[in-house]
Design a protein that fits this description.
Two copies of one chain form a homodimer. Chain A has an eight-stranded mixed sheet, sandwiched between helices. Chain A has helices at 13-26, 42-46, 61-68, 88-91, 117-132, 150-153, 167-182, 198-207, 221-228, 240-253, and strands at residues 2-6, 31-35, 94-96, 99-103, 136-140, 158-163, 188-195, 212-218. Chain A is built from ten helices and eight strands. The longest helix of chain A has 16 residues, at 117-132. Chain A is an alpha/beta fold. In chain A, helix 1 crosses helix 10 and helix 3 crosses helix 5. The radius of gyration of chain A is 18 Å and the shape is globular. Chains A and B meet through helix 5, helix 7 and helix 9 of A and helix 5, helix 7 and helix 9 of B.
């Protein structure tokens, strides 16, 4: 099973991804977790404190140069568009139980055909983990889904968009659906986060009426406290853990 | 006065920027507001409902082609590195009172010398508004400050980083300071947002001890309600308005 998680910055993508990954692990699954949001730290959220210091692969200049043949700082030079990446999940992951976490860093966005060695390496790696790995793959992505090409996208089983009660998170969800449509990624679910009351749920259902909802997570100060204390949301006293386990069953059934 | 606002996605950059812009306007200043965060909508937050439908300049393919001479979809072709932009603030802004808002969209990030026509146009525009305009300029930027080159940065009077009680917003603030250092942008202030108690303030002060704090904004459900109702935070019943007006005095004195 290959899952991609997206949504506006700050809505709780990484918290949700960490809860889902730990729930899969508790279920006995092998999980390959991909941190593709330069603004997040999935390894720390999963509960690997050393993950805080992981260098994103996009910033490993020597690795990027070695694998792509690119000369750093060289504009418009030649480099391999299909670099070797199959050994990287083993050699560049932080581990906990049955979970491997890889930290990718940022990829170049959109633009009129702009291609860089770093983003070529990251996209090759994403293609590899989606197409060729046996583990359950969970990808924590940015507000867009620029890491996914068309060939990769059709092997992503589900795209889960996290939203909060707020207009811009809704705008982002609509934009992500549009991008997903362009690469034929159709199986999209929404998770409502930071829900304070049924009014918040109604607001999201009303403004995202064309979307399929996976469920809702409550606004929970315990999750903020856990973050401040450097504790994984899965190890905190929170209702969210049970809610996400329920969502996982729904994901597996669909 | 030229101000840049940055911080992790979701911390409240745009809410703070909108409050600051409206406070400047109420003070009788001419303001040029730059929305450089593809995940935000500054015009709507300022209180221009039609701003919701503004097309970001980075997505105006014909304009980009006309000004840079680039052929859309052409990889590695030639284009102008110094396109004309001085007429754009007048022709491509949404207006309210003394405020003009321009929506830029995303710029290509980092990478090993990757340059695209869109980002060339956006950077030229930012350079123009920072170096050549008389208005007070307020820029709502992404988690990074990639829009700023070294020559532009030295004319930015203050970089304000918005943080919330959360580890990743702190990581982002530290990262932004590092990026700022690389382009000699030194006058950095921090605004703490979504503060629930003095404990939250203490957490931020402890983890950002090397930073200068401009002040703290309370966690305020009224701001969420205003957003859900499509009302500018400046037009909501909220303490934040007075707090930001106080911060503005501090900014002007420094």
């Amino acid at each position: 099973m290959k899952l991609a998680i997206s949504g506006k910055g700050g809505v709780g993508k990484t918290t949700f991804a960490a809860l889902l990954i730990r729930a899969l692990d508790a279920d006995g699954k092998q999980v390959l977790a991909i941190d593709a949001d330069p603004d997040a730290n999935l390894a720390a959220a999963v509960g690997i404190p050393a993950g805080r210091d992981m260098v994103p692969i996009a910033q490993m200049k020597e690795l990027v140069a070695e694998r792509t043949g690119a000369q750093p700082g060289n504009i418009g030079g030649y480099f391999k568009l299909n670099p070797r990446v199959d050994d990287l999940p083993e050699s560049l992951s932080a581990c906990l139980n049955n979970i491997k976490v890889m930290r990718l860093g940022g990829v170049q966005k959109g633009g009129s055909g702009c291609i860089c060695p770093e983003s070529t390496l990251l996209r090759a790696l994403i293609r590899h983990v989606v197409l060729a790995r046996d583990e359950v793959v969970v990808m924590d992505m940015e507000a867009g889904i620029e890491h996914l090409g068309r060939g990769t996208a059709k092997n992503v089983d589900k795209l889960i968009v996290v939203v909060e009660p707020g207009r811009r998170s809704i705008d982002t969800a609509v934009h992500i659906r549009q991008l997903a449509g362009e690469i034929d990624l159709k199986n999209i679910f929404v998770v409502g986060n930071k829900i304070r009351s049924s009014k918040d749920e109604d607001f999201l259902k009303k403004h995202l009426s064309g979307f399929q909802f996976l469920g809702f997570l409550p606004y929970d100060p315990q999750l903020i406290e856990a973050d401040l204390e450097g504790v994984s949301p899965f190890d905190a006293q929170t209702e969210a853990k049970a809610v996400v386990s329920g969502m996982l069953k729904k994901i597996e059934q669909h």
